[in-house]
Amino acid sequence: MNSKTLKAILAAGFLLAANGMTATTAYAASDMTDTSEKQTLSNADSPTGIWQCPDSGLYFCDDFATGSTNNWNLLPQTENSMIPDGSFDLVNDADNYVLRYTADKSGGVIALVKPSALSMLTTADYYVEAKIRPRYNSTAANKQLYLLGRYQDGNNWYAGAMNIQNSVGSTQVEIAKMVNGELTRMQRVKTPIEQGAKDALDGQWYYLRLVLKGDTLTVYLDGDQIASTTDTSFTDTGIIGLWTSNKSFEIDDVRVGNADDLPASIVLSPRDTEYSAEVGDTPKVVEVSTRTETGENDTFTVTSSDSNVIAISTAGNQVTLTPVGSGTATVTFISGSNLVRKISATIAPQFEMPTAVYNFCNELTPASGEFNTYEDTQLKIRFDSEVTLGEGSIRIFRTSDDVMVDKISLINESDNIGYNPVRTIKTNQVRIDGNIVRITPHANTLEHGVNYYIAIAKEAFTGATLAGQVFEGIGKNSGWTFTTRINGPDTNKTTLVVNDNGHHADFRSVQGALNFIMQNVAADTPATVYIKNGIYEEPLYLYGKNNITLKGENRRRTIIRYTINESMNSGTAGRPLFLIEQADMVRLDNLTLKNTTLIGEGHQAETLFFNSPDGRLIATNADFFSEQDTLNLKGWTWFYNTLVAGNVDFIWGYSKVSLFENSEIRTLGDSRGNGSGGYVLQARVENETDKGFVFLNSKITRGNGPNGDPVLDNTTYLARSGGCSGCYDNIVFVNTYMDAHIKPVGWLNDPLPTPQIANENAGWREYNTMDLNGQEQDLSERLETLSYEMNEEEVLNGYSTREQIFSAYNNGEGWEPMKDIYNHWPRFK
């Protein structure tokens, strides 16, 4: 062992000991040399050891200890169309040099290791690993950070990736490739990744490793294998490097080694990072798998921050977490290689059956003793005054044998929405609105013709009275019982009625009707759901059903709403109020859909995600509300006489054509109170020839947000680009009335759109833009070349009628949605 290595180990031991950890050193054989020294100083929670490159055992290594970047070609000239404009510098971070990249407006290939520094790399089978600390920077672009391998040129390479978003629920680890300039993200797995503050040196370090062996590509994060795939696009050694769509970060300890060498790891199964329970609940069992860098089983320790809340017992690799007391605790797992995993636990008091008796009148829904209750009913309690959510659970028991059929936690709940397949999401099963508590049993819990009773822990709701007395819980003696109806609708029905409180209905919930149709009606057989006036508080999922109509009784009084968002359910399929997949000819008419998320609390929160790339959707006489990402659209969609409201990218997606005709597009005041007017659109059209988002004879207006915040003059952009590779910013406004909140420049040029030179067929375009009084607007301040003002002939040739706009449907067959309203759906009453 040389003196440099010894100093590194001693320094690491001192630093880790200061954090209550022990430095470890492992030695393993390597195929590259007879022996290899490897210092395992990684810590997934906060790696603090100053690791230094060994003298042997790796094909390449750079820890930047010399304060030099001589091994690197930074911001290289490549053939890729993306030209990065960020900057690199070396920064001393706690007596350790790291390489910092600060993003600006554009990304691309930002760094390559010089071929001369890779002279020992003579095989195409290797791993490339780096320690990376992501950093916040404001950008609308995808925030991927790619570690490149088998790099051939700027348009051809493989990558292991971190996709960083503002919400850790949205972050991903990915495997990607670029072939002839086309980026493909072959594997994407949701994985929590934190980022440090802008322009700071805080945050968490992560070890990202890409292994290339034959045609197999594998990506690891902190030693945990995240994803693997096969591909044969590149078989030559190539070089290594870095690519980013536009992400700031620090990087250290870059190394290239033998593909057969595995990283140290610690894996928990299940991978949950949160745990909610009540005292006395069945303990949670966690299986722990650990490995050293030499491939041997590693040791681990596990501790509870409060053993009076969570008691821990260990048997081999199984750890049992027992909820023994109410409160919160953090369970920490640390491997012998100093990798860390944590579980945050919230434990409520033990459930005891309440004995309180009340003189109920009209406080309960369903009423006490009710018969013919619908199996998809929502429970409701009307307290005498405002109530506060406490802790504990709500339970439903079968009266005949006192068997509990459902346990509903007040927080951290989930449910399975839909029918074959189901949509599993985190949910708000218990919701409070003033003195009203609404409770949704888990899907498919209640059966036909069964008597049930409700039990609620006395700690569940605080600060209120019920039926004239202090709330002390509801138990069997309280008498909240009901009996479900004997049978559901005739399975041959194709027209259903939903009513949240009337007798003449097939279902109480919209999802109940959708489930029935998906289960009993053939995919192409027309079906209609009539929805009576009411507030339906539920997320929705429609899958694989064509020719279906949802029609409300009154546009303003038939309201489907829910609070669901990126913070609750990461990803575009998790966070929408209404998710529609693999469906064609769907019509929404005469109703309101509202995602009640506040942007500062949940970020992205679609009201509707039409995830049917080849499908068609018609929305007429309908309102859609959210703040961020109100509509996410694919396929072919027509919005006629509709209102779409939001403030950040509130119409976006990968549409082939989305036509908004005679509609109002309303920017809402940002509920964070920051005065931002936001952005109306973000187009990610996948084909340059697709018309994308078209607005015909519509209005761009403004209104106060959910907290009463106004939208000021000159604060709103028509659109900003998503900055994604292979996407086109195809947006057209024809005969559009625009209020004074739209900025004179119109469009945001950060990041730059595609194409960067707009023309009559692609990019950001306008024709005959007017103010709300119908006076022609001066567009002289619009972005030069990035936007395009169409002439009358260009509009008449392709954007003046529905037939023209939808002419490319089904390989040129075309689509006239108004005809389908009359030919494919039953007449409406």
TrEMBL record:
UniProt xrefs under SMART domains? BID_2
Q: Which GO terms describe its molecular function?
A: pectinesterase activity
The record ties this protein, via Pfam families, to: 3keto-disac_hyd (PF06439), Pectinesterase (PF01095)
Signal peptide feature range: 1-28
Q: InterPro entries given for it?
A: AL/BT2_dom, Big_2, ConA-like_dom_sf, Invasin/intimin_cell_adhesion, Pectin_lyas_fold, Pectin_lyase_fold/virulence, Pectinesterase_cat
User: What keywords would UniProt list here?
Assistant: Aspartyl esterase, Hydrolase, Signal
Domain BIG2: residue ranges = 262-345
Q: Does the keyword Lyase apply?
A: no
Family the UniProt entry places it in: Belongs to the pectinesterase family.
Q: What is this protein called?
A: Pectin methylesterase
Organism, by scientific name, is Gynuella sunshinyii YC6258
Q: What is the lineage of its organism?
A: Bacteria, Pseudomonadati, Pseudomonadota, Gammaproteobacteria, Oceanospirillales
